[in-house]
Design a protein that fits this description.
The complex is a heterodimer of chains A (113) and B (115). Chain A is an all-beta fold. Helix content of chain A is 0%, strand content 59%. Chain A has strands spanning 5-7, 10-14, 19-24, 29-37, 44-49, 55-58, 61-65, 71-76, 85-95, 98-103, 107-112. In chain A, the strands form 2 sheets. In chain A, strands 2, 4, 5, 9, 10 and 11 form a 6-stranded mixed beta sheet that branches. In chain A, strands 1-3-8-7-6 form a 5-stranded antiparallel beta sheet, with no helix packed on it. The radius of gyration of chain A is 14 Å and the shape is globular. In chain B, strand 4 and strand 5 (44-50) form a beta hairpin. The radius of gyration of chain B is 13 Å and the shape is globular. In chain B, strands 2, 4, 5, 6, 9, 10 and 11 form a 7-stranded mixed beta sheet that branches. Chain B has a 4-stranded antiparallel beta sheet with strand order 1-3-8-7, with no helix packed on it. The chains are: A mainly beta (113), B mainly beta (115). At the A-B interface, strand 4, strand 5, strand 9 and strand 10 of A face strand 5, strand 9 and strand 10 of B.
Chain lengths: 113, 115
């Protein structure tokens, strides 16, 4: 059972278009992160959101954490070919005094020039 | 320190052989994770350490898998009697658990192919 769901699974768009990808769960997370991964490499952290309703911007990328801290979205404005990659959301699950980070299955984005 | 390093980058082995991977985390990080990733999927949690203590091991991890972090620094992941289904990218990540928001820094992974 996936604790984190991501949609869409695949997305292919033209350069210049806008897009939004989603990350959903029935669990509450202490924090949620977005990573981007290129083929043959490890994921690279883009942003961490902590507070319910929080919005963070990173150039053309806008990240939002749901009010209940169960979901998040990533919006990309004017997508560029360099945005191509696998976008992963990851949540820190609270478990007693420890928390561990788990990942969703990812959204594979392809931006066509 | 240049980040998390993993060795080897690629490993090809025959079914039934044992393999061992190494991860060197960022030096000041006290937490170390191992994940497994197959093509087009997100990383799947295997196990993690805080210092030298192994805090959790995934139920998906069979007894053929073992991980160690003997001195709280580098870690090894061993797979005994490899099977074709073990073929995947094995990712290591480190973090500092004392930070307010845990951020994982990943290595480039070890790509395992079991023939």
């Amino acid at each position: 059972t996936q604790l984190l769901e991501q949609s869409p699974q695949f997305l292919s768009i033209q350069e210049g278009e806008n897009l939004t990808v989603y990350c959903n769960s029935s669990s509450v997370f202490s924090s949620l992160q977005w990573y981007r991964q290129e083929p043959g490499e490890g994921p690279v952290l883009l942003v961490t959101v902590v507070t319910g309703g929080e919005v963070k911007k990173l150039k053309r990328l806008t990240f939002q954490f749901g009010d209940a801290r169960k979901d998040s979205s990533l919006h990309i404005t004017a997508a560029q070919p360099g945005d191509t990659g696998l976008y992963l959301c990851a949540g820190a699950l609270l478990k007693t005094s420890y928390d561990k980070v788990i990942f969703g299955p990812g959204t594979s984005l392809s931006v066509i020039p | 320190d240049t980040g998390v390093s993993q060795d080897p980058r690629h490993k090809i082995t025959k079914r039934g052989q044992n393999v061992t991977f190494r991860c060197d985390p960022i030096s000041e990080h006290n937490r170390l994770y191992w994940y497994r990733q197959t093509l087009g999927q997100g990383p799947e949690f295997l196990t993690y350490f805080q210092n030298e203590a192994q805090l959790e091991k995934s139920r998906l991890l069979s007894d053929r898998f073992s991980a160690e972090r003997p001195k709280g620094s580098f870690s090894t992941l061993e797979i005994q009697r490899t099977e074709q289904g073990d073929s995947a990218m094995y990712l290591c990540a480190s973090s500092f658990s004392g930070a307010t928001n845990e951020k994982l820094f990943f290595g480039s992974g070890t790509q395992l192919s079991v023939l």
